[in-house]
Amino acid sequence: MDTTVSTQLIEARAGRITPEMEAVARDENRPPEFVRDEIARGHAVIPMNPAHANCRAVVVGSSYKTKVNANIGRSPVRSCNDEEVAKVAVALDAGADFLMDLSVGEDLGDVRRAILDACPVPVGTVPIYEALSRVGGDSKALTEDLLLDVIRDQAEQGVDFMTLHAGLKREHVALAIKRLMGICSRGGAILAEWMETFERENPLLTRWDEIMEICRKHDVTVSLGDGLRPGCLADASDDAQFAELDTLGELVTRCREAGVQVMVEGPGHVPFDQIQMNMERQQELCDKAPFYVLGPVVTDIAPGYDHITSAIGATSAAYHGASLLCYVTPAEHLCLPTSDDVRQGLVAYRIAAHAADVAKGLPGARDHDDAMAKARINFDWQEQFKLALDGDTARGRYEGSRSTEEGDPDHCTMCGREFCAVRTTRRLAGMS
Predict the structure, then answer these.
(1) Which of 2, 81, 162, 384 is the most buried (most CB within 10 A)?
(2) Nearest to 288 by CA among 256, 257, 311
């Protein structure tokens, strides 16, 4: 191992507490030594490429507040750089802890630079998207060297974490194409087609040691992608998904041996009753590496409302061990998300993350809830709007339903003054 470069993992294993560890310890109400030891074991990560100059430290692990990631990025048929940068501001205002640029098309370095400059939270990418974009979408023109060049370029630019679908082996493809929905991951589908076309193993897997050198040099956290995540309930928890997960567990060990921070991505579409099993299986196979999950979406029949169907699954996933939730917007399965879709997705997922943190009993997790209850019993509307996850929406609904003649703030229009249970409780308690 090259001792001239270091990562948060290497520093932690050497017993050193970095400024980033100290920062997240303050944010999470944890001793710095606790954070260091969690990172040393690989049970937590701080994705933070030193080249991302304006980035603040954020920790991911089941012992800390559940974090939420927002996906943005251009599609081949819609959006532009300015629109995606505008979504960064919306995502940050709505409370995103992480952000992923999933752009495809031309000149991706330009949009990524603009996003990195505008974003003070960790930024992730999926390098296979840019690699395929550089060859005009022709997978037959994709080469192993080009893929490594893209990974290197993105690391040098400042990307903090990268989704790498290295656990998808050629032998897994036959398992996946028998499914109802087949392969729903863009990255997984690209690599599966490349492997079948050239009758060769996954280039991310065969060139893994070289990838580790790049990631270690720039302290890029690897996010092991689930290229065979289920795309519908019928495909959940099947042989293809778990065959890939077995390989991801092996790659976790190889990342740690290389001094590279690593987390693991997970499903997908999963019936509610299978979520706990999926979370526990990943924790066992991947030695408690932080789990980064999309949803899971718990029913397939609600397009337009998948921020809700997936937030239901996300709460359960976080309670049972997931550390980072990738939001789903109302546009999922339908179209490229707008800025309003981004906001709605983030609010839904911040609710899911917070509900799980309260249920897990994390230090201070319920403080805001108790403060909100006190504000409600005291009819302190301004404090309620301040404490709310989306205070502007709460204020708008409250004020929009009241007439200008109403001067008494001790009730809302749900019950009015005479039927308000809070007013009755205040009288019983001698509060008014």
Answers:
(1) 162
(2) 256
pTM of the model: 0.95
The one-letter amino acid code at 164 reads L
Q: Report the amino acid identity of residue 366.
A: R
Could you tell me whether strands 44-45 and 60-61 are parallel, antiparallel, or unpaired per DSSP bridges? antiparallel
* Residue 189 CB neighbours (<10 A): 19
Choose the final residue of a domain: 360, 388, 403: 360
Q: Is there a single domain that holds both residue 272 and residue 371? A: no
Instruction: Tell whether 222 is covered by a domain.
Output: yes
User: Count of domains in the chain?
Assistant: 2
Give 161-200 pLDDT, tens digit per residue: 999 999 999 999 999 999 999 999 999 999 999 999 999 9
Query: Are the CB atoms for 157 and 110 separated by under 8 Å?
Result: no
Report yes or no on 288 lying in a domain: yes
- Single residue among 306, 336, 360 that ends a domain in this structure: 360
SS (H, E, C) 119-180: CCCCEEECHHHHHHHHCCCCHHHCCHHHHHHHHHHHHHHCCCEEEECCCCCHHHHHHHCCCC
Q: Is the pLDDT of residue 46 over 80?
A: yes
Residue 3 within a domain: no
